[in-house]
Design brief:
Blueprint lengths: L19 H13 L31 E3 L4 H6 L14 H13 L3 E2 L20 E8 L1 E6 L4 E4 L8 E9 L11 H23 L5 E3 L6 H6 L12 E4 L18 H10 L9 E2 L16 H7 L10 E3 L1 E2 L5 H10 L7 H9 L1 E6 L8 E6 L2 E7 L3 H6 L10 E3 L6 E7 L1 H8 L3 H22 L3 E5 L4 H8 L6 E11 L6 E2 L3
Parallel strand pairs: 10-15
Antiparallel strand pairs: 1-5, 2-19, 3-4, 3-6, 4-5, 6-8, 7-8, 7-9, 11-18, 12-13, 12-16, 13-14, 16-18, 17-18
Helix pairs in contact: 1-4, 1-11, 3-4, 4-12, 8-12, 9-11, 9-12
């Protein structure tokens, strides 16, 4: 990540009153010149929030291959952070365990309106990113509720290498999110990529990541993900070399002008070059204390709780030991794999509001060269942030930011991203920010905190509070704190 010293810059290129649903699209247009119409009169009325795409692709009707059982038991014998599971000799079984470790159901909280919980967060618990496996001539999708890989797409296509693909479906998120679905899917792909890398790392599997190029839409056709205009281009991790390339697919246009604008952003990716070996997803420098297993860390992952079916999250303010901060910083020191994502990672700036952390003044901090540096002492900064949070505290919902121990913000200068990586750099930054946000989530789980990734902060006043540049976009935030409520947890692990 780049040096976060103060920099001047031009005035904000985005109108201060731009609504949250169109703001990121305006940033993309500013950075690339590829205009997208975001005026309300240019798009139809959204469908009701209940009308979303199904949890699995419609083509998921094929035979099922059961996933191996006992993943949790293997992870219980793997100490966090440096222990690894005893991987089966059969690679198919090892991959099955890796997928369950990375994505498997963890628990149900009876009072929580958003169920069921996995070891990673998702907008409204919609989990719009699908995990797809191509092995030889078979194409399958991860089907967690059947604990299986279910056949999907063409089963008579050309044979290919064993690989896992991640693709997000925009229409799985409600229409009311409009163009904002573009950024949300990009962030969730980064979160899912880290979970895939973590599962593979825990079970001793290696692979190579390929980011989308202009031919990547052919993979959507290969997996039967239709209509292709509702899907993001896939990220693919090959576990072995070889296999013929997937045939290119024609450029799509969506009848819905909102989806068409989203496709303009997503199809601007054209990352060429060789697939990049996966690096580590877990930081190497974490202390070994043996108190937790990997099963326990993944079980603990939470975005915060509320009682009695209420929405949102709430916490309690308390002093936090410095070790908690060091853990988070360590997870934030691990870049995503490959040169393109590493370059996007370097363009991200990380700023945080700390409160009650041992040895650190309350206020605004920058992460510089892997170390927090005080930017501005400001007691009450967390409470001020709460006034800029899009989900206010009400009798029916919690939006408790004022008690948070740390609120992390990842930001970037969109034109620098595009100058360095081309138009696809805008989306690459979202992958990198999602990767970082999931690192914060895992660090929080290991230290007894919740972590809630968010894009709900009002950008202009938040940018001013943090001391960011006028031409700097907030890509993602994560609210971390001590949970106030506890309750019944129903174990769903296998």
């Amino acid at each position: 990540m780049t040096d976060t010293s103060d920099r001047g810059g031009p005035g904000s290129p985005i109108p201060d009153d731009a609504d949250v649903m169109s703001r990121d699209m305006r940033w993309f247009t500013y950075a690339t010149g590829l205009g997208v119409r975001v005026e309300a009169e240019a798009v139809p009325e959204p469908r009701p929030d209940t009308e979303v795409a199904p949890a699995l692709p419609e083509a998921a009707l094929g035979d099922r291959t059961p996933l191996p059982r006992g993943t949790t038991e293997l992870l219980e014998r793997a100490p966090y952070p440096h222990g690894r599971a005893d991987a089966p000799r059969a690679r198919a079984d090892a991959l099955g365990h890796a997928l369950v470790a990375g994505f498997g159901l963890q628990r149900r909280e009876p009072e929580n309106p958003f169920n069921d919980h996995r070891p990673y967060p998702s907008v409204r618990a919609k989990f719009p990113v699908q995990v797809l496996v191509r092995d030889g001539r078979q194409r399958r999708v991860l089907d967690l509720y059947r604990h299986a890989l279910t056949g999907v797409g063409r089963q008579d296509g050309a044979a290919g290498p064993l690989e896992v693909a991640l693709a997000g479906r925009y229409t799985r998120l409600p229409d009311t999110y409009r163009w904002f679905r573009s950024s949300l899917i990009g962030l969730e792909l980064g979160v899912n990529l880290r979970q895939l890398c973590l599962g593979m790392e825990l079970f001793g599997l290696s692979g190579k990541l390929r980011l989308p190029d202009r031919n990547a839409a052919g993979l959507l056709t290969d997996f039967g993900l239709t209509p292709e205009s509702e899907w993001s281009l896939p990220l693919t991790v090959a576990l072995e070399d070889g296999g013929p390339p997937v045939a290119a697919a024609p450029a799509e246009r969506a009848a819905d002008p909102v989806l068409d604008g989203i496709l303009t952003v997503n199809r601007a990716q054209d990352f060429t070059g060789s697939a990049a070996p996966l690096g580590p997803s877990v930081p190497a420098g974490l202390p070994r204390d043996g108190a937790l297993s990997w099963a326990e860390v993944l079980w603990r992952r939470s975005a915060g709780r509320m009682p009695r079916g209420m929405y949102g999250m709430t916490g309690r303010r308390r002093p936090v030991p410095e070790r908690t901060l060091r853990e988070a910083v360590s997870w934030l020191s691990v870049p995503p794999p490959g040169p393109h994502l590493a370059a996007a990672w370097e363009e991200l700036r990380l700023t945080a509001v700390f409160q009650g952390i041992e040895g650190h003044a309350d206020g605004v901090w920058h992460l510089r060269d892997g170390r927090p540096t005080l930017h501005r002492a400001r007691p009450g900064a967390a409470a001020e942030l709460e006034t800029h949070y899009g989900y206010p505290v009400t009798p029916y919902a919690g939006g408790d930011v004022r008690h948070a121990s740390a609120v992390w913000f990842l930001s970037a200068h969109p034109r620098r991203l595009v100058d360095r990586l081309g138009p696809g750099g805008f989306t690459a930054a979202q992958y990198a920010a999602g990767w970082a946000a999931q690192g914060i989530s895992l660090a929080a789980a290991a230290t007894g905190l919740y972590a809630r990734p968010a894009r709900a902060f009002q950008e202009v006043p938040t940018r001013q509070l943090l001391g960011l540049d006028p031409d700097e976009m907030i890509v993602c935030a994560a609210i971390t704190g001590t949970p106030r409520f506890e309750g019944l947890l129903c174990d769903l692990r296998l």
